[in-house]
Amino acid sequence: MQTVYKKSEMLTSNPTHYCPGCTHGIAHKLIAESVVELGLMDNVIGVAPVGCAVFAYNYFNCDMQEAAHGRAPAVASAIKRVHKDVAVFSYQGDGDLASIGMAEIVHAATRGENITVVFINNAIYGMTGGQMAPTTLEGQKATTCIYGRQPRSEEGDVVNGNPVRVAELLATLDGPAYIERVMLTDPANVMKAKRAIKKAFEYQMAKKGFTFIEVMSSCPTNWYTSPIDALNIVKTQMIKKYPLGVFKDIGREAK
Q: What residues form DSSP beta bridges with 44?
């Protein structure tokens, strides 16, 4: 029988711990395929976060370093400075990167560290029970805002504040070389996401600077929806606040 598809060599055979319908597994697959296609499998180091992807080191078939909560960009920066010719990536969620790790990502980006960051944005704290994250949408319910995120009260007082648009924020800095936001809701968008991730690694290996891919993901468990409905929420609600697209590309700007 002819083999038409097989798991990437960059992925181990360990079963993942992710909830049914979560798209972390798809994101792992795209990173793995990109690394192999670029011939980097024996020349790549990943940095795992604290959060839903805390066990990412069990799934990628390469050297991995676990980082303290939010500190993955700093760890990745140090590894890259020591191993200048190795592809280095960090893999982080919104609670890890956009909350406790906000200073780390901003400073790594503004320095122009030659690393690739894959940022999974599912608008909620997944591993710890569904608390409000920096990226939680206005009106979205979470265990720490049970009536929905409210930026301000009717009287004008600050309540929960506004969601953070990380891609747009980092695009204002001088250091980044490439920033794009993608989503994993359907085959066409999965392929676009793969092209973005692969391009980020290509830019890194060409020493163009900091690259950042924000991946819009779903969280059926903490959104209390079915996997299909969760994907529809990404397509119909999340992209209103977090539009897809390229926010910075020094290669495009140079043309």
A: 87
Among the listed residues 141, 163, 142, the one whose alpha carbon sits nearest the alpha carbon of residue 151 = 163
Buried b (16+ CB within 10 A) or exposed e, 86-106: bbbbbbbbbbbbbbebeebbb
User: For residues 203 and 117, what is the distance between their CA atoms, to the nearest angstrom?
Assistant: 12
pLDDT, tens digit, 9 for 90 and up, residues 176-230: 999 999 999 999 999 999 999 999 999 999 999 999 999 999 999 999 999 999 9
Q: How far is the C-alpha of 116 from the C-alpha of 1, rounded, in Å?
A: 38
Q: In angstroms, rounded to a whole number, what is the distance separating the alpha carbons of residues 150 and 148? A: 6
DSSP character for 145?
B
**Where are the alpha helices (H) located in 142-186, listed in sequence order?**
166-171
| 11: nearest Cα among 149, 160, 34 | 34
C-alpha distances in Å from residue 216, one per residue of 123, 135, 181, 246: 9, 11, 7, 14
Is residue 190 helix, strand or coil?
helix
Nearest to 196 by CA among 210, 207, 180: 180
Which domains does the chain possess?
24-253 (3.40.50.970)
